Amino acid sequence: MSLLPSDNTPLNRHSLVALETWLGHLGAKKSSSNPCLWIWSLPDWKVEIQMEQDELRVTWEKNGERNQRCFSYGLSRLDVEAAINEGP
Fold first, then answer.
1. Measured between alpha carbons, how far is 17 from 87 in angstroms, rounded to an integer?
2. N or C: more exposed end of the chain, with fewer CB within 10 A?
3. Domain residue extents for the chain
4. pLDDT digits (tens, 9 = 90+) for 29-81
């Protein structure tokens, strides 16, 4: 049995365990110094995913340049994952 709800389920309907499982399945690693920060290294950029109280803050870094966006927990996991993969 999967810990993850359907891909179309909003993030705010996921448990903390489900959100952490999802980030781990993406390949992100939890920061040892900040339990709300996850680091995901992709071929073209590095992504920092910060679980804030009201939103998911995503920062992409490529060649020293950083771009940041915030995503509502009301968005589906599928939409947020697609946006993260798309990049800044």
1. 25
2. N
3. 11-86
4. 999 999 999 999 988 889 999 999 999 999 999 988 999 999 999 999 999 99
Could you tell me which of 69, 80, 70, 58 has the C-alpha nearest to residue 13? 80
The confidence band for 87, taking pLDDT boundaries of 50, 70 and 90, is confident
- What CA–CA distance (Å, rounded) separates 30 from 38? 4
Which pLDDT belongs to residue 2?
Answer: 63
Q: What angle do CA 66, 68, 70 make, to 5 degrees?
A: 170
Q: CA torsion, points 50, 59, 55, 9, in degrees to nearest 10?
A: -90
